[in-house]
Amino acid sequence: MHRYDIKGSWVARNFSPPTAGQQTYCRLCGQKYVVGKKKDKCSAHAQGLHAPNVILKDCDLSSKFQIEPDRAYRISLQLERDSKFLMLRNIMDYSLLVYAIHGLHVYKKELLTPCIG
To answer: What angle do CA 34, 39, 40 make, to 5 degrees?
Structure first.
C-alpha cells in the first residue's frame, strides 16, 4: 500500500527519498531508524529491512486507479463539494490524500500523462 498527496500539479511533484544518515520512521514496524545504518533491524520484515514511511506525490504515480463506478461517482461529488467550499472561502491550496493498494488492476504506463519537473 502506498500513500499519495495529490495536488493536481505536475511541476516539482516528485517524492524525495530519505538520504543515508537521515532519521525516519519505518512504515512496516513504526520504529524510528537511521537510513543506511545496517544494525537497525525491522521486526516486521523477513530480512529485517526497514521501509521509509513516506507520502508519494503526483508524479510518483506509475499506474491509474480503477474505482467502482458508484464509488467513483460519490468521490467526484465530494470533490465538487469540497472545491466549492474552498472557493467560497478564497482558499486555493488543496491536497487529496490517496491510499492505493497496488497490484489489483494496473493500466499501461503509455496511457499516463508525463510530469514536468
So the answer is: 45
